């Protein structure tokens, strides 16, 4: 193949989409052609950035792809059937291969854009589902508030809470595993040997508020969906203020 014919393969070569025989030809050419080696590197950097970081493509790459799509196809050369061999009869047109390489890059761009859009939607949904986020952060920053933690027996789960000066408690419980719809987390305050229900938190709690006074020790259990008046279950997490 000529230099220009090999250049038409560089995009699909960078995406590992060439036949083994064609790869041998391109590999041999790249050992001798610094310009084509640089072009292959540009294609690979573009694919890597679009697939993982959403970054901009290297200067000139998009233009080279566009030029390869807009350029007229090379003239057909008729060769005898016995010289062409079965491999050439299966080869896709060069322009089509370049188009496939460009399409793969475009798909990567669209995937990144969709992921970014999904992330923004998740952030908006979190803000709507957890309107107490700003209140919770303000309570943590208030020097008159008292911060506490609830931890599991094995120490793998820790929830952070805060009690304000007026006795209102806030607890971030979003790290608890999601329960089935017919189950719920329930918050309790300890009064001596008794646990008093402070509220049903649902199967997927975020930040919850509760009346903390006069309790200084708190616990969370898993219960049936409507909650219970008296629990017989072991706490998932427990702890309290100093």
H/E element order: HHHHHHHHEEEEEEEE
How many structural domains does the protein architecture include?
2
Number of strand elements: 8
Large-scale geometry: elongated
Our count of helices gives 8
Spatial gap, N to C terminus: 79 Å
Mean of residue pLDDT values: 78
Side by side, the strands of the main sheet go: 5-4-7-8-1-2-3-6
Major beta-sheet overview: 8 strands, antiparallel
Low-confidence stretches: 83-90
The Cα radius of gyration reads 32 Å
- State the helical fraction: 40-55%
Oligomer: single chain
Strand % is: 15-25%
- Structural class designation: alpha+beta
Give the key terms.
43% helix; alpha+beta
Descriptive account of the structure:
This protein is 43% helix and 21% strand. It is of the alpha+beta class and 242 residues long. An eight-stranded antiparallel beta sheet has the order 5-4-7-8-1-2-3-6, with helices on one face. Strand 2 and strand 3 form a beta hairpin. Helix 4 (34-52) packs parallel to helix 7 (94-129) and helix 5 (61-70) crosses helix 7.
Describe this structure in a few short sentences.
The protein is an alpha+beta fold and 242 residues long.
Helices and strands in order:
Elements: H1 3-7, H2 10-14, H3 20-30, H4 34-52, H5 61-70, H6 81-89, H7 94-129, H8 133-141, E1 146-151, E2 158-163, E3 168-172, E4 183-191, E5 194-202, E6 207-211, E7 217-224, E8 237-240
Antiparallel strand pairs: 1-2, 1-8, 2-3, 3-6, 4-5, 4-7, 7-8
Helix pairs in contact: 4-7, 5-7
């Amino acid at each position: 193949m000529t230099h220009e014919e090999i250049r038409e393969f560089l995009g699909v070569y960078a995406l590992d989409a060439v036949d083994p025989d064609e790869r041998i030809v391109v590999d041999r050419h790249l050992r001798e052609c610094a310009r084509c080696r640089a072009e292959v590197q540009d294609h690979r950097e573009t694919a890597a950035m679009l697939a993982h970081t959403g970054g901009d493509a290297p200067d000139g790459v998009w233009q080279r792809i566009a030029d390869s799509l807009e350029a007229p196809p090379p003239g057909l050369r008729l060769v005898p059937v016995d010289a062409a061999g079965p491999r050439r009869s299966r080869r896709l047109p060069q322009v089509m291969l370049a188009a496939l390489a460009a399409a793969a890059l475009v798909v990567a761009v669209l995937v990144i854009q969709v992921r970014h859009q999904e992330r923004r939607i998740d952030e908006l949904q979190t803000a709507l589902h957890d309107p107490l986020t700003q209140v919770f952060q303000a309570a943590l920053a208030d020097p008159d508030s008292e911060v506490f933690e609830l931890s599991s027996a094995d120490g793998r789960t820790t929830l952070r809470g805060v009690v304000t000066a007026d006795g209102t408690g806030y607890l971030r419980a979003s790290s608890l595993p999601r329960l089935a719809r017919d189950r719920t987390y329930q918050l309790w305050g300890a009064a001596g040997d008794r646990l008093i229900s402070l509220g049903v938190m649902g199967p997927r709690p975020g930040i919850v508020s509760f009346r903390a006074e006069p309790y200084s020790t708190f616990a969370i259990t898993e219960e049936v969906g409507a909650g219970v008046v008296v629990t017989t279950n072991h706490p998932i997490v427990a702890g309290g203020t100093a």
